[in-house]
Design goal:
154 residues; alpha+beta; seven-stranded mixed β-sheet; 4 helices; 7 strands; 38% helix
Length: 154
């Protein structure tokens, strides 16, 4: 048996044992890329692309009033209003690799450790926490259906 064939068999056996398929791994990678692009669009202020990635109705929970939204546009409108209130600049969300991904049919959720940095009233501030993003597969591709976070100050 060749080394390449042995390696392929080992990968296939490991995938079966761990309930991982190459197609699932590819889909998880695609979903992660969508979430990273969404965060990058927000960070860059590319709101047209940011909103285009959202489903028409979403479930968003975040740490500023009114704390819950059903549209990405409403969330960002209140984010900007809150920034004015607390004298903050547009912050930056940094995420790494997903800590957990679950895909069930046309629904998915990815969980990340995250860091949100900002300047508030002239002082740098950093929040570390967890961020979860849910998605739905549509005829147009995957769309964001939810975002929830839990933050603590450094």
């Amino acid at each position: 048996m060749t080394l390449i064939r042995t390696c392929k068999l080992a990968v296939m056996a490991g995938a079966m044992f761990c309930n991982i398929s190459p197609s699932w791994a590819s889909e998880a990678s695609d979903l992660d890329a969508i979430v990273h692009r969404w965060a990058a669009d927000m960070n860059a202020g590319n709101m047209n692309a940011f909103y285009k990635a959202c489903a028409p109705r979403v479930a968003i929970v975040d740490g500023f009033p009114p704390y819950a939204w059903h549209t990405c546009q409403g969330w960002m409108r209140d984010y900007e209003a809150n920034n004015l209130r607390i004298k903050a600049a547009r912050g930056t969300l940094l995420i790494g690799n997903p800590l957990w991904t679950d895909v069930q049919g046309d629904r998915a959720v990815l969980n990340y450790s995250a860091t949100f940095t900002d300047i508030q009233d002239g002082k740098p501030i950093s929040y570390k926490g967890m961020w979860a993003v849910s998605l739905i597969r549509t005829k147009k591709g995957w769309l964001i259906t939810g975002s929830g976070s839990a933050w603590g100050a450094d």
